[in-house]
Design brief:
The protein is an alpha/beta fold. It has 2 domains: 211 residues, TIM Barrel (Alpha-Beta Barrel), CATH 3.20.20.10; 123 residues, Lyase, Ornithine Decarboxylase, Chain A, domain 1, CATH 2.40.37. The strands form 3 sheets. Strands 2, 3, 4, 5, 6, 7, 8, 9 and 10 form a 9-stranded parallel sheet that branches. A 6-stranded antiparallel beta barrel has the order 11-14-17-16-15-18. The chain has a two-stranded antiparallel ribbon with strand order 12-13. It is elongated. It starts with 7 loop residues before the first strand and ends with a strand. The model has no long low-confidence stretch (mean pLDDT 96).
């Protein structure tokens, strides 16, 4: 018998398609020939990689993390260009990548050595990642030309696209100018396609769109910018996490609630117990006051989040009862607001959802 626990995550495929349209329009306004590489790594930010791929089928390509993700797309019939954002972890993966016509990102010089030694059934289109200041992955800018020459000399390489990743496109105090200058200087005169812009850069710095844009979080309806929601940017939330009240309790003034009595009732009050906890992916560190909707009315969480449950203040919802609907995020409650209250970002809320939460499509 299937579990009747009321927690469910609803994925709106039409919202994903809408958001791709927003990304496409922003791209074309900046560079009419630029293409859109939809980032669907991390199980499409928790939305389901094959579900998202279908909704984003009109993207010009997909970006994923692992060979397994890429092969799942190929096996599902997707012939789009597929970029592997961390490249390959072992030379043993190269033959499968060649057979599937995948495009690995090259970010270490030893990867070039492995490519040079490989005898592959097909030549690979590769992306060369240049570290312009993120200092995470990438060939140092000072060695980018030498790395490019080595790649172009590889018999197993068909073409090279140049890329970098911005550390502060979402931070006005940092921006992209410094990294863009480094990239421009080390690639000057090269007639190769480039990929620079993530969601934040696409929306805020259209001058750096390049030939391929790489929207991620915006495809799922969330804003990359602090203090803004996706709806502020014309995006539609693709994920809604919903549950119901499974108990209603009366707590007297001065009584403690939940583990550690982290919340003490300031007066007699009604408390609702929601079927959702940190084992479902709700942030354990979400404090008292994190926004939540009960019967469509905004209220707040109370005390510590438990493994399978959390508590809510029913003062603004006097008619709430066992079975009353609860929205943890999505719809009228932007995930960005919940994330901000919990000291995190919407990316983490989406990707942290547990596999035990059933998914429904709308």
């Amino acid at each position: 018998m299937l579990s009747q626990r009321p927690l469910v995550v609803r994925i709106d495929r039409a919202a994903l398609t809408h958001n791709l349209g927003v990304a496409r329009r922003a791209t074309l306004a900046a560079h009419p020939q630029a293409r859109v590489l939809a980032v669907i790594k991390a199980n499409a930010y928790g939305h389901g990689i094959l579900r998202a791929a279908e909704a984003l089928r009109n993207a010009d390509g997909f970006a994923v993390l692992s060979l397994d993700e890429a092969l799942a797309l190929r096996h599902a019939g997707y012939s789009h260009p597929i970029v592997l954002l961390e490249g390959f972890f072992s030379g043993d993966e190269l033959e499968a990548m060649a057979h599937a016509h995948l495009r690995p990102v090259i970010h270490r010089e030893d990867q070039i050595t492995l490519l040079a030694r490989a005898a592959l059934p097909h030549r690979l289109d590769v992306w060369l990642k240049i570290d312009t200041g993120m200092h995470r992955l990438g060939i140092p800018a000072s060695r980018a030309r030498a790395a490019l020459a080595a790649l172009q000399a590889c018999a197993s390489v068909a073409s090279v696209t140049l890329m970098t990743h911005f550390a502060g496109a979402d931070e006005p105090a940092i921006g992209v100018a410094a990294q863009q200058q480094v990239f421009s200087e080390c690639t000057q005169g090269l007639a190769l396609p480039v990929s620079l812009a993530n969601s934040a850069a696409l929306l805020r710095y259209p001058a750096v769109v390049g030939d391929w844009v790489r929207p991620g979080i915006m495809l799922y309806g969330a804003s990359p910018f602090a203090g803004q929601t996706g709806s502020d940017l014309g995006l539609a939330a693709a994920m809604t996490l919903e549950s119901r009240l499974i108990a209603v309790r009366r707590v007297a003034r001065g009584e403690g609630l939940g583990y550690g009595h982290a919340f003490m009732a300031p007066q007699d009050m009604n408390i609702g117990i929601v079927a959702c906890g940190y084992a479902d992916g709700y942030p354990r560190h979400a404090p008292t006051g994190t926004p939540i909707l009960v019967e469509g009315r905004e209220t707040r969480t109370l005390g510590r989040v438990s493994m399978d449950m959390l508590c809510v203040d029913l003062t603004p919802c006097p008619n709430a009862h066992v079975g009353s609907p609860v929205t943890l995020w999505g719809g009228a409650l932007p995930a960005e607001r919940v994330a901000a209250a919990a000291g995190t970002i919407a990316y983490e809320l989406f990707t942290a959802l547990s596999a035990r939460v059933p998914v429904e499509e709308t």
